[in-house]
Specification:
alpha+beta, five-stranded mixed sheet, 4 helices, 15 strands, globular, Osmotin/thaumatin-like_sf, signal, Thaumatin, Osmotin-like protein
Length: 250
């Protein structure tokens, strides 16, 4: 009798251990719903590991899923557009990271629409925070959609194609000057003043304020950050989501 009980307990332990081992963790999925190829890029914050070598190609109407780190990770995802590869030289009209397909931790040239993440924080609450930012301008519509999370887990982002309404002073064209509008610059990038860039004296919640240019972005896409000290309530804490889906174009 004792041996059968021990066998039952051992079997139960193996089954429980197997269940824990196969329990899927948080998945990150990048979706390209645009009618053109993009090159998503991923940059970790300082000291964090690089995911998926920092960048890859994603053809129209395809997606790529990969496991998120199991420990705390923070970083950003964006899309590079208008990319070409010729004579051994790779370059993108927007979001370029030093002429590489795999960014390997490098940041991207602005203007770009950014998704920013802080995964697995808050201890046992296992929170994943996410936001979409137009602080560095806009190059492509983007949303972040969580799946199966608990608590505050809204879909956020910018579905509008701001390229069609971008004020002339903020238009980023390629080729420069006469080419089509491929990006919409921030006021900071366009004019470089401390006030618009929230630098020096203006780098505080009291002095870094909305302006005409940030209000243009906010009107087009209310559920995005548009300047450095924008409302913290736009960063959402979602408990234990199974998947975070970054979708380009809709």
């Amino acid at each position: 009798m004792a041996s059968s009980s021990l066998l039952f307990l051992a079997t139960l332990f193996v089954l429980c251990s197997f269940g824990l081992a196969t329990q899927p963790g948080l998945i990150l999925t990048v979706v390209n719903n645009c009618p053109f190829t993009i090159y998503p890029a991923i940059q970790p914050n300082a000291g964090q590991p690089v995911l998926e070598r920092g960048g890859f190609v994603l053809h129209t109407l395809t997606h790529r899923s990969f496991p998120a780190p199991t420990a705390h990770w923070s970083g950003r995802i964006w899309a590079r557009t208008g990319c070409t590869y010729s004579n051994g030289h790779f370059s993108c009209q927007t979001g370029d990271c030093g002429n590489r397909i795999e960014c390997n931790g490098l940041g991207g040239a602005t203007p770009v629409t950014l998704a920013q993440f802080s995964l697995h924080h808050g201890g046992h609450k296992d929170l994943s925070s996410y936001e979409v930012s137009l602080v560095d301008g806009f190059n492509i519509p983007m949303t972040v959609t969580p799946h199966e999370g608990k608590g505050l887990c809204p879909v956020v982002g910018c579905r509008a194609n701001i390229l069609t309404t971008c004020p002339e002073k903020l238009q980023y064209r390629s080729p420069a000057g006469h080419g089509p509008v491929v990006g919409c610059k921030s006021g900071c990038a366009a004019f470089g003043t401390d006030e618009l860039c929230c630098r020096n004296h203006y780098n505080s919640p009291q002095t870094c304020r909305a302006n005409t240019f940030t209000q243009f972005f906010k009107h087009a896409c209310p559920a995005t950050f548009t300047y450095a000290h924008d409302s913290p309530s736009l960063m959402h804490d979602c408990a234990s989501p199974r998947e975070l889906k970054v979708i380009f174009c809709h």
